[in-house]
Design brief:
homodimer; mainly alpha; Arc Repressor Mutant, subunit A; 11% strand; globular; DNA-binding
Chain lengths: 111, 111
DNA sequence: TTGACATATATCGACTACCAATATATTATA
DNA sequence: TATAATATATTGGTAGTCGATATATGTCAA
């Protein structure tokens, strides 16, 4: 898969996952891979900086799992601002995909 | 529109337009804008370097319009290699869009 | 006629997004 | 004991897009 195709939609994917409930980074990577049938394999080097930036913008908040053992997990929670941003990004993506299909199918059966 | 959404699919759009017949740069910008209902407004600073790179890769060839007056137009023609690349890119995009929809609709009616 | 705008191609610098590589730390398995 | 999976994080590099700018011509209105 061309990685640049994902450009811009990564934030949308992350916000969408968090709409269903609080999740931690590693979990999101696994879930995205599974739900997209291995089409999306989001890299840690992409996700963690993205999570920090979304937090800074107020779209998500973080809370640390209270665990005695193991590496602690940072769970993320979608804020109201995040929900608004999600709605906007989703509309934007559907507009883009629709326009794309229109171009791809515009000259299909004329030649 | 988030410009990064377009990332990676610009080459696909250009190859698709050329599948219908030879076209010149400015014409492609106008046609894309029209066919996408103003969703795509490809910039000259994006298109011309892209055309050069597609030519270098052998996906398209260029021929100069023989005009006495006016600024001459550089028409581009899709090669066989370009047609193969187009098919591959188109499949790739549909895979990506399908996976995207699967994630977006995965948790839609459960909450 | 002069200035503004559309046509038409081209390049450069800046910004953003993504990834590979690397680092760190724990647990489970061989 | 060492290899892999879990889990988060940072850095450096690459690629794609745009804004600004440059150049050159044709058209239309003030």
């Amino acid at each position: 898969m061309d990685k640049t195709l994902l450009s811009g939609s990564t934030a949308l994917l992350v916000l969408k996952l968090l709409e269903e409930g609080d999740k931690y980074g590693y979990q999101m990577i696994e879930e995205l891979r599974r739900r997209s049938d291995d089409t999306f394999s989001l890299k840690a080097g992409t996700l963690y900086p993205l999570l920090h930036s979304l937090e800074q913008k107020g779209y998500i908040t973080a809370w640390e799992e209270n665990s005695d053992s193991a590496r602690p997990r940072r769970y993320y929670h979608l804020t109201d601002a995040g929900k608004a941003q999600l709605a906007e990004k989703e509309t934007e993506w559907r507009t883009y995909a629709g326009a794309m299909l229109r171009v791809l199918e515009g000259g299909a059966c004329l030649a």
